Every structure is written in C-alpha cells, then in structure tokens.
Write the structure tokens for this entry.
Amino acid sequence: MLLHRLTEYAARAEEDGELPPPYYRPKRIQWILQISQDGTSAEFVDRRPAKGERAQETVAPYVYRSGTMPPPYLMVDTAQYVLGLVKQVPGKSVSERGVADARRRRESYAALLLEWADAVPDEPYAAVVRTFVTNGVLQSLTAPDEMTAADNVALMVGTTWLHRLRSAEETWAAVVRSRKSGKAAASLCLVCGKDGELLSTIPESIKSGAIPSSSRGRDAQLVSINAAAQGRCGVIQLINTPVCEACGGRAMAALNLLLASDTNRRRAADSVTVWWTQEPADDWFDSLDAPADATVARLLASLHEHPDPVTAERVDPRAYYALTLGLNNARAVVLDWLDIPVGRLCNHLGAWFEDHRVYDGWNQRYVYLPLWRLALAAGRWDAKASKYAPASAPKGLEQELLHAALTRGPMPARLLPHLLQRIRADRRIDSPRTALLRLALHPNRKDHQVTAPADRLDISQPDPGYLCGRVFALLEAIQYAALPEVKATIGDKFFGTAMTAPAAVLTTLRQGANAHLKRLRRDNPAAHAALSRRLAETFLAFGDGDIPVLLTTRQQARFVLGYEQQRAADFAARAARAAQKKAEANGSETDEAAASVSGATG
C-alpha cells in the first residue's frame, strides 16, 4: 500500500516537472572536469563554496552501492573513481592494495564512459568522451592538492553537463536495471499489478541525513532483506516482495523528493514525517507547529459543524497520507503510516486544538500551542536559562503526540505521571503544561460525544483534586494581595506537597490566611470581601466530604488544572477591573475637557 501511494505521487510530481530522472539524486559537485571541444585536454574548475556559503546541488546519477568494490556512477562520481585518488587515512601510509583498488575504480569508471559512448553513436558529445578516454587524457590527469577522495567530480563540455544529456539519463537507467534486476523471469508486480521485470533489491536508498538520527548519518534502505532470518521461509532479497523496476525506482524517487521538501516534511529529534494528498488540497499539517488564528478557527468551525469523524470524511473524501520514518543503522523504520480522507483529518485536527487550548485570563483569549512546544514542555525547566532544557523530554514523545493529533487518539500512558513529576520538581506551570494536562485527562478522544476537561474555570466541577487546586490558588492570591512584596509565596513552598497530600497543607494554610484577611479588611476592603467570599464558596463545594488526605494521579492532575484555571479567572477579573478603571478615568477627563470648553465658550 505504501509503495503504491508513493508511485501515485511520483506520477503527479513527474507531470509537474518536480521528479528527477530515474536513478538521479541531488548531489553537491565540488569540482568540474572541463573537457575541451575535441576531447584532447581538460582542466579542473573549483566549485567548492566559500566559508559560510551553501554548496550548490544538481541532480546526478545515483544508486545504492555496497561491498568492497562497488561499481561507478556515470559521468559524476567521487575522485576515487574519476581520478583513482586513494582515500587517505590519518596516520597511515598508502598501501599497495589501496593503489591497486584505486586503479581498478578508475578503469571501471572509464569503461562505463566508453559503454555510454558506444551505446549512443549519434550523440555529438560521445566522440568527445571517447577521445578523452582512449587518448589517455583521463589517465594522465593529476588531482589538485585541495581535492579529497570524497569530492564529487562532474564532466562538462563547454556549458553542457554531460550527465544531464537525455542519452546519459537513459543509459544510466539501463545500467541500473541490469545491476539490480533479479535473475527470475518477468512476473506480477505487487505495486502496479502488472507483469514486469522484478528487482532483486531496491535500487535507490533514502539519502543520508534525510532521517534525523543521533548516530552517524548514512544512506538507508526502505525495503531490505539480506539475511535469512529477515525473509519469509529464509528467502533473502525481494523474492517475497515482488516489485518491478519502474515501481521500485519511482517510489523511492518520490520518497526522497518528499524528504527533501520544505513544505511536505516535519523533522523531529529522531524521526521525520512526510505527507501528501492524492489530489491537491489545503495544507492543514502546518497548523500543528504554526497554529494561525484563521486556520484554527476554520478547523474548529468544521469540527462543530460535523463533530462525527465519519460524517466529516464524507464532506471531503480526498485521500490524505502521512508517513513517519525512523532510522536503525542502515534501515529505515516505518514508525507510523496514515491513510485517511481529508475531511476526517480536519475533524481530528479541530478536536486536537479544542482539546488542548488554554484560556489566557490576563489577555482574555484562548491560546493554541504548537506541537513542538507541547513536547518540549514535558522536559526539564531550566530556571537559570528561563527555558526548557533541550533533549530533556521523554524520547519518542513528540512522535506520540503527533500520532494522537492526526488520529484523534489518546495520550501515551507514560505522559501524565512523568509530567506531574516534572511539575513537582520544577515548580513550573505554564500554558503548554496545562494543555498537556487537558489532553491527558480526556476520557476518550475517539468518541466525539465525550468532551475534554473544561478549558477555563469550571465552578461546578466537584472533583476533590480540582477543588483543592482552586483553594490553593485562592489562598496564594490572598497572601499576595495582603503582602504584594512577598518574595516566596505559599506556592513556592508548599505546592508539591499540596498536590499530593492536600488535607494537612490546606488546613494549615487556611488558618494562616486569617491574618492576611484581617490585613486586607483594614487596607483593601473590596479585595477582602471578594477573596473571602470566593474562598468560602470553594470550601463549601466540598459538601459533606472532607479534604482528601492523598490524591490519585488523575486527581493530582486535576489539582494542577484547578489551580491554573482559578488563577486565569483571577487574572481575567483583575484585567477587567483595570480596563474599567481606565475607561472611567478617560471618561472623567473627557467630561472635564468638555466642561472647560463649554465654560470658555460661555
């Protein structure tokens, strides 16, 4: 199914002129070997970028090669093949075997050039290359001192890249087919469903660096069976995965095109996700990392209009695909594969934003968080740097959050206890962590009739953990109102204990708040009246039940949620009062100005 979808994308990309020729891949060309028009001489042109500049790339012949003496590429290859340059190992001298291997590489490269020239006798540049090789010009060249064995060298005549000639592209494709096709007769291809020449191995690999990894970057194979234990019935290579040459090459070309894209790719710490659609459609994926207000509003409107995912997919049945890859040595690992209608994707993304949004009381608006910030907030808070420590979040969490967002699935079970531990240790609660708590506390994200915990203060919520969090926030607000210059609040001292064992802490703090309320009654009667009333109402919400001695894991999460939402509501009230005072002050100034004008006129 995956290879089939990639070949579909390849056909569309080819029509748009985006797909490179078969078995071609972008390469950095460090040197040009400029051949004269008659092929009797040549010189090197240095194309290495200056320091700080980005190297230029061009599509060039490529195929995955391995072994002790892999065959050469046509026209464009490393200096090891073009010039027979021996790879130098620091601290070691060049051995006779190394020199002999370099000579064989150079000979095989020259032989491939002649094979192309003989195959296309009508090509004007074929005679130039034949003269260049047979007259010994290639063999007489000496590599510049600055050149390394790994530098790519491309042949050029005048202003023409020889590897971009149509005849070179066709010859290279034929060479690859002869190297990679199986010995069995043509048979049914698993991808296209037609009889064709089957591959023994996939010719093209995933480009080094395309999949993020902490280990050394190297090319990776999407389908690789080179040991008996990996194949069915002990059969290696692609015997049990029949793929024809056309489908295998086009599928990998399409995948590499997606992996190189800046618009259809999302890189994480140790994985990469690419996405595409069967037909042109709006790009909703970017909203996960850059949630623009207009885009989120459209997704939420679509969710509210069609809350049932089944109904939503009928609205827009166009297919949407997303592939997530990881790396295990030289093999790509399919971490996730998504094949759903665009309508269902919009439903899932709308639910994602509605289930995690956080109310900003001071600015009186909802905040929607980028997915990367949510993943980062599960890590360790560095108070000195005032940011989350890089690479401190649980490994793989970002990929799990991405899967949940795209599939409307649940949060990983490990998230909630880990997040609570980090909150206790860091004493840090912010919008991303509050959003993660809302997601983790959702009873069932798959069921569109089940709602997430409230996105703002819910005074009707009877959960004891939630009520304890609200009480703690009110006690902290009372302390701050009475002692605005306080350096260490009760939140700094007792929050971690209160969220696990609230009974003893809240009882003690309630008694200590009497002194603060007494001071407020003297200095700020309005604040005293408001805070006293809210505190009494919240304690009454416990009903006949006592404050819990210990809270469960989910109750601890609701404690944090109640604490943060109570604070957001208090911020909103303070902001409203400030705005009202400002409006009254402006109104008074306007009245005074009008009166003075009236008096002057009179």
Remarks:
- The first strand starts at residue 24 and ends at 28.
